[in-house]
Write a structure and sequence with these properties.
The complex is a heterodimer of chains A (230) and B (418). Chain A is an alpha/beta fold and 230 residues long. Chain A is built from eight helices and nine strands. Chain A has a five-stranded parallel β-sheet with strand order 6-7-8-3-9. A four-stranded antiparallel β-sheet of chain A has the order 2-1-4-5. The longest helix of chain A is centred in the C-terminal third of the chain and has 18 residues. Chain A is globular. Chain B folds into two domains: 174 residues, no CATH class; 216 residues, no CATH class. Chain B is elongated. Chain B is 51% helix and 15% strand. In chain B, helix 2 crosses helix 12. The two termini of chain B are 24 Å apart. In chain B, a hairpin with a 3-residue loop joins strand 5 and strand 6. Chain B has 13 helices and 14 strands. Classes of the chains: A alpha/beta (230), B alpha+beta (418).
Chain lengths: 230, 418
Amino acid sequence: MESQSSLEFKKLKFSYKSPAVDKKPILEIDSFQIMKGEKVFLYGPSGCGKSTLLNLVAGVLKPTEGSIRVLGHDFDLLSSSKKDQIRGEKIGYIFQSFNLIPYLSVKENILLPLWMNKKEDTSKDNLGGILKSLNIEELQDSEVVNLSIGQQQRVAAARALVGEPQLVIADEPTSSLDKKNTLEFMELLLKKWEEKKFTLLFVSHDETLADFFEKKVSLEELNVRSGKEQ
Amino acid sequence: MIHFITLKSIKNRKFTAGLCMASIALSVVLFLGVERLRKGARDGFTNTISKTDLIVGARSGPLNLLLYTVFHMGSPTNNIHYSTYQKLKKNPMIGWTIPISLGDNYKGYRVVGTNEDFFKYYKYRGDESIKLKEGKPFKGIFDVVLGSQVAKELGHKLGDRIIISHGLSKNALYKHNESPFKITGILEKTSTPVDRGVYVSLYGIEAIHIGWETGAPNEDKLVNPETITKDDIKIAQITSFLVGAKNRILTLRLGRYIGTYEDEPLLAIIPGMALQQLWKTMGYVEQTLFLVSLCVLVVGLLGIIISLYTSINERRREMAILRSLGAGPASILGLLVYESGLLVFLGSLLGLSSLYGCLFAIGPFLESEFSLFIPIQLPDIKELTFLFSILIVGFIVGFIPAFKAYKNSLQDGLTIKV
């Protein structure tokens, strides 16, 4: 039977191996699940391990103990290239610093994941819709360096969504935006979520955004270790 | 897609990519340039004389015979009888001959006694013939044709009269003052020792030595140039002669025949072989140039590696972004190796075109000032091998940052701060 969870942590522990770093786990999560199609707001102050958690989800870091299942795959057991393939085909990332490639146009930046995953055939179908729904249709041939911060973040979101991923991870996507752009971005992103029903893991330290989500998770509460220390 | 992104990336970093290509181009120009100089020097030397099958002279050393006959250097140890030359000339295996008679000089330049066949049959650098820049070949006994360098250095023109010195030394004690020669022709530049020769007829050489039997002028016996005719002159000996066989296959047999000629001890050498042998004795010149080429190659390749590595390392951030979008090792490797290969290819192309530009621009200067003829021709196998090698190096060099970028992009993680 197909798993209904998009993300599943079981008895997860993670500590850095470097002798310079405390060998005690910086993340310790007994059990946590995000179901398919859920939108989850994960929050916590800087340094609480949000980036570490995201890197674990992306398969960049390996858990010291326990397991993470991402879209039904046990990332620990997958080869590097298989993880690349899953990241490319099923996961979309929206970064805090947008990470657009400056010398490519808006359209080219958005199409990158499709090119990387050899899904050029779906380009035409998906591109038009995504450009329209994120209000960047007229900017498609512009250089990304000439865009405003808000426009750049919408391009980054379009890039994350163009491949119709099953899971979207947004890492502090609004931290560079002002209030107006933040609200506009959140509305567009959640409109897209309503439309496509992908699983959304939205990570932020800005708790005012929590109202956009039904499920809110504090990483500090989730992290057994920080709970113990508190 | 790889091609598109790579081109856009190179365009975005046009300054560093341009520097990288310039560095590659410079290495290509230096290596191929030094190689062409080396080849030019060797070919210029070995092509000093061509299409001549044998050089025949009195029995001595082959190099000595080659040096005094072709390069106008050293002294002939002995002469050969003119009658011997005439007999051998009639041999059915012989197609043509050019007699050479040496012994005097004009202001340090060798005076070469020969006949009209010199203008007809002498070839250099493949199939190039001796051509007159102005005037006509010698006809009269006291006519002279100057090599281009002699005319240029001494500022002579047609109609000038020159006095030949007796002997091979520039500071000879005696001059043939009684028999001045009139310049009737000046040769075109050949960038060979021909340019440094003063050409007169065998009759001329013989005529100015009438009355000089003791090595010094005997005033009573000296000729009057106004009255002497060719019938009054009996050519007794020449120094050597060049031979063109009727059929080149016969060259060895002809050489053996001449080498064992019973009436007079003779030596016949194949000029091509002798020139190669002489070039080998001066091998240090070529070895030095080869060493320079090798140093240029090593420094050039190191330069290529460093500039490619620096250029490609700039793309670490991009690689991290691309990995987060699902780019696998093949895509990352493809992008960086393709860029590296493309930079080397374009750099090599730029280098090659710059080389041809340089050859086109300074070739005439090298030829006129250093008698170094460097033909503008397509790259040979050796040069193509070099170009192919640096292309391979370019691809290999691309693997190092590609591997690093792939590995580091994982470490950079998804919170890219590179």
